Amino acid sequence: GAEATVDALEPPHVRGLNDDQRAAVLAPVGATRVLAGPGSGKTHVLIGRVAHLIHELKTPPREILCITFTNKAARELRERLRDKIGDAAAREITAGTFHSVAARMLRRHGDRIPGIGRTGEFTIYDADDSKQIVQGVLVNKFGETKKTAQPGPMRNWISTSKSCVKHSVGLNGSHMLRALLDAHKPIPPMSHERFVECYDEYELGLRQANAFDFDDLLSATVAMLEMCPDVRSYYEHRWSQVLVDEFQDTSTTQYELIRKLSQPQGSVFVVGDADQAIYGWRGAEVANIRTQFDEDFKDVQT
Ligand SMILES: Nc1ncnc2c1ncn2[C@@H]1O[C@H](COP(=O)(O)OP(=O)(O)O)[C@@H](O)[C@H]1O
Ligand SMILES: [Mg+2]
What we know:
By secondary structure, this protein is an alpha/beta fold. It is 57% helix and 10% strand.
């Protein structure tokens, strides 16, 4: 019938979508947030949106940035993009995790951050490397023995404190303790003083090793965009369209990074899990982010 004819004329990235998916893929350029259940086709919509940007709105693929959370999700995203828009275009798109995208930006421009004390050849410390540094601090500064030192909790507090602030560059241990407490993160009062000292020693250790930990990758990138207007202007032009999958998992620092990358034009398209956004373990933060998103990006399409 008539409907079948209309369907056949539709571009491939719109064909077969339900009404909600279609509305999201075709939403006007601006700030768009899609919340839907797990397995409902959110990543499918994000990929359809990329195809729409390229084929209908003539966005050069190299101006598109797609961010997700895990390496596995990033790999899957790149594969699905390739299937949808072809190998050549997919290769021009920047698609990766928050950490991989941030690391690339820092390798290129990170030495411009005032007082950062790292070169472009910095080392990336994973959770185990970080724990080693904390272990060293506990043994060398606090007289613990290698056997009894328990670096795990302290490392986690340091990491959590860094995800509670927009960026941690230039902030000392007492500031970070306040950030933890303000965010209602559990840290026993008897550990407050030690946290402050450990934090500062830990930062010194990283700096001396020309290293960033995982949290710093995000933090330093946010600081870079804040403190270096020319670098920020470069990335605003570099990526005119920012898309984020699994938005419900976004931390304060990650959100800040998205916000900085997608301004001033505010072209940002985020998809996330509606259920987790309400009941998830980071529910409070997500609620914050949802409200914040409405404030930061005018004319949000939901
Ligand atoms: N409108 C659609 N047409 C065809 N396949 C779809 C559609 N919506 C979702 N899918 C498929 O359903 C599966 C789950 O979708 P996905 O985008 O991964 O969900 P989510 O990201 O919400 O968990 C995928 O295999 C995807 O290709
Ligand atoms: Mg998905």
